[in-house]
UniProtKB/TrEMBL annotation, chains A, B, C, D, E, F, G, H, I, J:
<comment type="pathway">
    <text>tRNA modification; tRNA-queuosine biosynthesis.</text>
</comment>
<dbReference type="InterPro" id="IPR050084">
    <property type="entry name" value="NADPH_dep_7-cyano-7-deazaG_red"/>
</dbReference>
<comment type="similarity">
    <text>Belongs to the GTP cyclohydrolase I family. QueF type 1 subfamily.</text>
</comment>
<dbReference type="InterPro" id="IPR016856">
    <property type="entry name" value="QueF_type1"/>
</dbReference>
<feature type="active site" description="Thioimide intermediate">
    <location>
        <position position="49"/>
    </location>
</feature>
<feature type="binding site">
    <location>
        <begin position="90"/>
        <end position="91"/>
    </location>
    <ligand>
        <name>substrate</name>
    </ligand>
</feature>
<feature type="binding site">
    <location>
        <begin position="71"/>
        <end position="73"/>
    </location>
    <ligand>
        <name>substrate</name>
    </ligand>
</feature>
<dbReference type="InterPro" id="IPR043133">
    <property type="entry name" value="GTP-CH-I_C/QueF"/>
</dbReference>
<protein>
    <recommendedName>
        <fullName>NADPH-dependent 7-cyano-7-deazaguanine reductase</fullName>
        <ecNumber>1.7.1.13</ecNumber>
    </recommendedName>
</protein>
<keyword id="KW-0560">Oxidoreductase</keyword>
<dbReference type="GO" id="GO:0005737">
    <property type="term" value="C:cytoplasm"/>
</dbReference>
<dbReference type="GO" id="GO:0008616">
    <property type="term" value="P:tRNA queuosine(34) biosynthetic process"/>
</dbReference>
<keyword id="KW-0671">Queuosine biosynthesis</keyword>
<keyword id="KW-0963">Cytoplasm</keyword>
<dbReference type="GO" id="GO:0033739">
    <property type="term" value="F:preQ1 synthase activity"/>
</dbReference>
<dbReference type="InterPro" id="IPR029500">
    <property type="entry name" value="QueF"/>
</dbReference>
<comment type="function">
    <text>Catalyzes the NADPH-dependent reduction of 7-cyano-7-deazaguanine (preQ0) to 7-aminomethyl-7-deazaguanine (preQ1).</text>
</comment>
Length: 151, 151, 151, 151, 151, 151, 151, 151, 151, 151
């Protein structure tokens, strides 16, 4: 399983300065005859609020059905880390990540759940999928517990 | 992403005296090409019982699919806070909030779950959606745990 | 929102001596244009075993879609409390409560979950709904945890 | 609600020596006009491994839709207890119990979940239902938590 | 292990009409050389509010260190069931049960936790022990989860 | 069990306009010979931020050992509800409630846990007790789960 | 690490017919210079009620500090399995197991928690330790969740 | 229930040196007239990273509907244990196991969930099923909790 | 309650560029006569690995007993956010934060729990307190769940 | 913070062939003036059964109070991974790891919890500490949930 032009896997790589500069790499899917789901859970996401400049945090879960390519996971990690100094809104950020992965690996299907930490007492979750799931796909709940407040 | 006539975002705003006086504002949806779900979780809701004048409490979860507009979240917070001195019944209050958001942002779809604290040992939950969810929408459970009593 | 002949709401009322003597009251549904679900959670239900006369306990959850009437919740509480000295079987009791509410408020749809405390090591749960749920209704899981035994 | 030839209910009964000797009794269903689900949770099941003679344990959950008859629960308890000295495999035992109940009460529908304690680090669960559930039946998850190992 | 004058064990017994009429029986402690703890968990307790006559519910946990006698558990069950039509306050009821058991079996030590269902949104828990636990006794937490409200 | 000058119990009472105007009443302790703990759990507390005027929410748990008096629970509920339009800081409010109850019933011992909903991503909890617990008192954990954020 | 006269380890062994016939074996403690705790968790225990002959079930947790000998775990399993056709009371059974292990391996210290499945709605737990724990021992909670009933 | 050429069941068997050398055995399905689901939960899986040679860990859950054959569970355990020194990627390993079982027992249907321990902060889950589940099959959630990070 | 030289509270403030540049402010303790505990829960902490430059994440809980001063919470938030581009080790960072707060407000006592997200499969937690807790202080567990891996 | 002769940190290192060949390295403790606790959680531990050669699994938690040295975490990971082909008993392995760390970094205090996956239905946990914890140390529970079996 070798990617086309892997530049980051197995090397010490500088963190990219922004999501646009990050290189989201791919490796060939060794099982293209199967419709399977891969899930990435990313509990360590942070970006900046575009209005106040204060840090925002989220727990992200990304589900996709690979076609010809798999997402190379180290490059995904670096891509997500590149939002560290990027300002954008919760809805936009969540969808932007989804669009970028779709562009990079052209999956048969993808969905993203963005579970944002509360601001002003009210957290926002954002859920999107690229279309109806492929027929016959097995697609478990993401199962992230709801926000609870206290008590 | 700029709202049409935002009067509250980024300013110190007086809490509105009642829900009707509150201004529920909106900002343009930057991703109108996508059917995505946004979820607000509001664990800090309180109103008054119209019969006894005693405070009532609820945990609210609002899911919607934006069309041209997003709900501006600070104005949502102020709108919900404006129920603090408003008297109304559990079923009515839950549905009233839903109707108001529908009126304000004309979403493609919306649902609300109102999880009320028990009175007389028996809590009431209220669940409503504006119609069948859009085809192809990803719509996770709200996942709020059931009321348990003790033990 | 006023009931037709409310005799119990806002007054100090004698507990009815049996379910048949209890008056299950109703108030007009202020939102008859909407198909919404109301859920009552009743963790404090007790009746008597018709064979041994020993007390039985249950956790009940009632979901319904109001048509013209809402269940008046204080009268529901008194109705359920009236089973205190009534002997009947788990399956019968659960369904009897459902039939009574259906008769009282003629809902568009109703379901009841009766989660009975174990006798002889084996608890019984009883689940019934009045028909397929109305199209487009949002109907969350009752989510009551399964019986566990020990450990 | 009286069974046809109840021989065990309300009496002190000898535990049957084997499942085949146990008498699984029934009582008339007092609500034959309704499609309802009854769930038995049996956390105290034990049998013997047919190869080693060592004890096996399981947590069983049985869901059924009665037709003319209900399962008499004390006789169910005695029937299950009769497996105590019976040797059989996990898959076979689970299905054998289901077949026996189907034969005894001819339900409209039945399913059984057998959640077996681990042997060799790998527990087996067995799930079977007698056919697609009746249309319009309300059928909640059994909700038994997955096996976890440690940590 | 035989009690002195057991009148209820292994017989079909009428439920006593009040706690004072109930007979709390005892059996000899077969292990008087050991300081051990026995815990009864009683999730099915109900009494009446002395002011309103409405039913109250509680989850009770009783821990004791037997001296010469064990509490006979069937008589305990009947004693607790006899509160069904008894009116008294949460604090008083919890302590009354403790005093009665102390009087009946003269344990080396006893404690009771009364976890009452909420009234007016605020549940009361009552905790009492008869003195400092005997030295060297193993005394685990009762571990009852705190009241949570909703969300 | 009668209070000295109960003015609110069993009557329909106007909600007091502020904590200072609220009357925290007491009833005689019927078990003054025992050191027992009474716990009130109050998941429905709200006050105002003295700086912004925005609503604050908390889950409060109050443990005390009565001496001659019990806290009358309806008056406690009204007293806490009277903070609804009161502005004060988290630390101050929590301690003020404790001081008031101490003044009203002179308990042998008291502690309060104030679990405040997060502001700015960082919730504050406040814990105070009036001194070391009485020797021989049984004092279980309050057991409120820690704040979790998301994921 | 070899036992003195191991007759069961690594062989196919007949299940002993009773606890008294079972052989509880031991192996030398390879770390006699250290005070450490070993915990066995036994969720698969069953015996018979001496009065009714019906099966009883328990979840057992055994903690001990070895001196010269370790409990050989296969023989422990066979010993516990030998209670399958033994009649005895909850308190007695729990303590009998503890006494037997103490006799077999003469540990520096031992405790046992017996968490019995409910009979008549009220489960019994039995807790015993052989004396105060050795100074400097690390002794975590057994952490078994309390019995919950339903809901 | 006898397999065709069982070489491992009931014997002491050398662990196979690699998955390809392992023999995945089968026994006749004694209930071929029924569409039932068997679930294996394997919390003890480990393999090697093909790039770094470091160990990887996973929790695996395998669901299948037997046709003529059951998976012989001891041989499954040995087959899975044979990955201990095998290097391969998360996606490939999960699917390879599924393909092997399909080849061995030709089930009517199969699915596998591979829940891998995190690397670089981001765990990968892999989900595949061999096609749409058989009509009328009962197929519960695997219910494995999502990865949480900390807090 | 006014701080001495508050420069950040109630204003829009630039995020400080590093922890050393951040100003940790204080306000007078309005209850200096009481030994109470204040707990800050900070689930949104991030810093950089000093070796690789990759982001690290932690969940922090800080408990302290104020003396003359309270920590001003907005300045705490800004101080913690200033670690965003700071490289340091888990142990050092956790202790550095504790030392800084001690220096700023000279509390009677302080402790910090740093719960770091896993690196290499093994998370590190760091726990420190400034000395034995003040006598008579009430000091609940931080109760953060342990790291679990998968399954 | 530099170790004395670090040979593995920041390099690609061959996994050591056995625990004895592994090099457990150390780095200077930058905070020797403080008694703090560092906790490593290791959910990915595996070794071999010395009798059968079958794999064993454990979840390990190691708490220590550094003196002059910290455990270098990458070398700890490699050391633990080196047990992969090592045969030893649960009690011995757990204590051997503890002794090795004590030898390597001479901590002020250390404890280890070994939570082993079940064999024969009965898991073993092993707990040891090097002596009474240092006075004034803050030492939270490890909080690992108890083994549950099924249901
Ligand atoms: Ca699901
Ligand atoms: Ca809440
Ligand atoms: Ca309960
Ligand atoms: Ca659901
Ligand atoms: Ca169990
Ligand atoms: Ca479900
Ligand atoms: Ca695990
Ligand atoms: Ca404890
Ligand atoms: Ca505790
Ligand atoms: Ca998280
Ligand atoms: Ca503990
Ligand atoms: Ca309940
Ligand atoms: Ca977190
Ligand atoms: Ca504690
Ligand atoms: Ca603790
Ligand atoms: Ca169980």
């Amino acid at each position: 399983m070798t990617g086309e032009e892997l530049t980051q896997l197995g090397r010490s790589v500088q963190a990219p300065a922004s999501p646009d500069e990050a290189v989201l790499e791919r490796v060939p899917n060794g099982n293209p005859d199967l419709d399977f789901l891969a899930r990435f859970t990313c509990p360590e996401f942070t970006a900046l609020c575009p209005v106040t400049g204060q840090p925002d945090f989220a727990h992200l879960v990304i589900d996709y059905v690979p076609d010809r390519w798999l997402v190379e996971s180290k490059s995904l990690k670096l891509y997500l880390a590149a939002f560290r100094n990027e300002g954008c809104f919760h809805e936009d950020t969540t969808l932007r990540i989804a669009r970028r992965i779709v562009a990079a690996v052209a999956p048969r299907w993808l969905r993203i759940g963005g579970y944002w930490y509360p601001r002003g007492g009210i957290p926002i979750d954002v859920f999107w999928q690229s279309g109806p799931p492929p027929a016959g796909l097995w697609l478990p709940d993401q199962g992230v517990p709801p926000y609870r407040g206290r008590g």
